[in-house]
């Protein structure tokens, strides 16, 4: 059971998200009268009047709508609603309302898993050591910031970021009360587009019991930890406590689209992107990848006609929302993914669909050609970021592909060590909600950590908690932080929203143009060797070979190179 927290009301979003008055369905209902929810994408350019009439004709009731993109959440008791709605001339596509993205889940045990975010468990971890480096107290443990010159002697001296630059965190939430986030957190602009879901259609726990009567978490809460780590990497302030982010003076805005459990639903993701556009957000970080279909295939013969239509709807809705945000000046940054696969090659995926929208639904194996699309990382105008470890090598888990990866950034690689064994300090250190550390038993009675992946730092009576994680989820916010510095340095005043603004195309051009070129390894077929600790105390040798394609200036492992904060803002 999750912890109970006093409810804080979430402010209204925008007029574009209001649901119009609708009559209930008049068509024949299902035998048991059970209502199901769908997401319906309107034809591009169709009038709202025609779209609403089409939904009524199919027997649906609109419960939520985004008019900027033309996407609605619709409830219907008709078993044939999906098929009937697809036949309407005003409708582009229909899908069951289900998760379309997942913030990679965190493991707390020592067992090795090829997932995006990993913690070092109680066994096999090496304790953190901190070198003496200028900056906040934990700066010596931030090899990642040193690698991209986001330090007191580097970019902080030239451009620490402008308060008028807003970075939106589309994630699982932000602990806005964390002492190393609070000063840069804009509670007033923050929004939560999600509602807790106790279980899925199979009765499997998703978010568990709601913490609040409304099942809507306040905008300064993160019951997952993922979003807080991301936000801290981007903009923890230089305040003499803990660590500092890439852009320590910029403003953080929680634009929550992820469930407590880490799933992301299509409507909240679209709403988050259009809200970012309408609210004057300069940069958004998207450290999630498309689920339940890790890859969305418009016409994969392994899928049913309904599944094909659903995936086409996901692609179309995502692309409209990304285009809307880009058109309104939002720089879009996304994690490349953590499947250790080349996105430009044909692969096999056996993980989808991984969220049950209907009883009995379960993953199955599919051959995935390069024509299938992973959203949002393969979306148009999105900067896709791969992950590197402390040595500069591509992380063993990071997805890659020549023409897919735009830039690389530190995301951690706990096996990037001389002996190939795990070292927690080779991950990325950033803020961790104290409430989660306590609930998980990771702290002693006096508040000191009892696990090697959690670090505490105190300034007087104020203490902050931090944790080591790894993943492209951790690489992406380094690039987003550099994007925020670029807007701070070269942006101009935004007459509509205040603060600063800069064309996303210009931001991307500067980021890629100032990244440090990194050639493919020699030989290009690079073999990773890891020694994975087993439950009996022995080590299992694990190897995997990834092939890097392309020249030094732009290749499949590193894109245009590793981002550099100091180079991006001038020396």
Automatic annotation (TrEMBL):
Active-site residue list: 171, 226, 473
Domain Peptidase S8/S53, first and last residues per copy: 163-518
Top-rank taxon, per record: Bacteria
Signal peptide: 1-23
Classification via InterPro entries: Peptidase_S8/S53_dom, Peptidase_S8/S53_dom_sf, Peptidase_S8_Asp-AS, Peptidase_S8_His-AS, Peptidase_S8_Ser-AS, Peptidase_S8_subtilisin-like, Peptidase_S8_subtilisin-rel
Segments crossing the lipid bilayer: none
Entry-linked Pfam families: Peptidase_S8
Keyword Protease: yes
Keyword Protease appears in the UniProt entry: yes
Keywords associated with the record: Hydrolase, Protease, Serine protease, Signal
Family: Belongs to the peptidase S8 family.
Identification of the protein by name: S8 family serine peptidase
Organism of this sequence: Actinoallomurus vinaceus
